Amino acid sequence: MINVNTFKEYKGVKKLTQITAYDYSTARLVEEAGIDFILVGDSLGMVMLGYPSTLPVTMEDMIHHGAAVVRGARNTFVVVDMPFMSYQASDEDAVRNAGRLLKETGCQAVKLEGGAKYASRIKAITDAGIPVVGHVGLTPQSVNAFGGYKVQGKSYDAAKALIKDCLAVEEAGAFAVTLECVPADLAAEITKMLHISTIGIGASNVCDAQVLVEQDMLGYTADKTAKFVKKFANAHDMIVEAFKEYKSEVESGAFPAPEHTYKIDPEDLKNALKEIKESK
Ligand code: KIV
Question: For site-directed labelling of 228, which of 17, 220, 240, 276 has its Cα 20 to 30 A away?
Fold first, then answer.
């Protein structure tokens, strides 16, 4: 199992792979596949709970799903997202809630969104002995401030601000930083500049690690996905086909077949029925 030191050792040497997971069964599969580390992302609000954004996600949601993932992947490094308003108001909130995530899920690290503005939160949490992953670029908890899900750092000013954010996150003590929806050349410069690892999502293959949302990369929906997503499977068609086949076999009587049923000694059944009839 990797730990915070692995990120330093592997920087520029070997790429690390991260995927999101939100439940026990998936976490087991992720671990079996040898994925280096898991993110219990607050994206669970959208892909697991059907919210239109990550904003309604609560600490209880993150703890519930985070603990299930840790139970399924005991030998994998797990990062749990700090949900909206669990750290924005104060350093004290940030430390208390990061501590709850570690204590109540068993995860190894937390992730929070924001750069220079939230550097004091990162410092306070790392000072408490809790490893932190930063998250800059497109930070979905600020979707309303951005006016939508858009590529970040595309202009001179925006690129400068994004670099400053990354440096502030590193200076504050984070061991890695997620770069979401950032132009490739900018991500390359940031990855070169930082001593900590960059984890890219929509930030090209120059990053030290990559992350994708499980449902996106497995192709759970037939809907259009973001440009940076590659569907490594077509779970949508596979699952819908299986559900249809199940329905059809139930209707035809083909399922359950004899091999799916349990037996009773016919004598016992006959006697039981006789006794019931006689007692009426
Ligand atoms: O919540 C999440 O899944 C994330 C990834 C998009 C990095 O933060």
Answer: 240
